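Board notes (copied after class):
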Amino acid sequence: MTRTRSLLLAGALLLSASPLAAQTQVKLTGAGNTVAYGVYVGPYKGQLGSGPGAPTVDLFCVDYMNHSHIGQIWNANKSQIGMQSGASISSTRYGATANALEKYRMAAWLTTQFATAPTTQWGDIHATIWHLMTPTAPNVTPSGTWLAAAQTFYLTNSNPHYYDQFQILSDVNMSAANQAGIRTNGVQEFIVVTPEPGTMLLLGTGMVGLLLVGYKRLA
């Protein structure tokens, strides 16, 4: 087996067997140009990881109470909210609050609605996300339309793996939960859509199979 094929096989095995890292570097690169309630709403842009190959992703803020700025770099815990990867939100900002997983899942679904709703509704969608996590802030009451839609989807969704595509990015430097169960300080918290773990596993095992077949033919 050539050295190149050996390296490819090792990489494929690593991809198929290793879990995604629990932390990542995050860089906020853009906040769009849609403003509501005096702040930017809708998807922001960011990079996950470091180096020239770091992927650019859409980031969706779930945390109105804290701040981040374009160009800021921080380290974040990556928390799963799906069934396939095993939901674990103990490192999130709101994980100790009542019905936290339900709220994160409704917020995750709401992030998908920015793509279909006109920008005139983005403020209401984002206000609904913030209202889910911190009902008293911002001092804006969403219309109720998007909250009802999120609740309906959560209660009727029949795909047990729907939420596997979402992760919560939470600043590792947040301090312990206060009396309300909300972790304090640190950079804003975001939701990001990531490749499903099952997809990554299939890709890795597929690469292993192809390389083994090629090796047998050349052996």
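Comment from the instructor: The first strand starts at residue 23 and ends at 30. The chain is about 35% helix and 20% strand.
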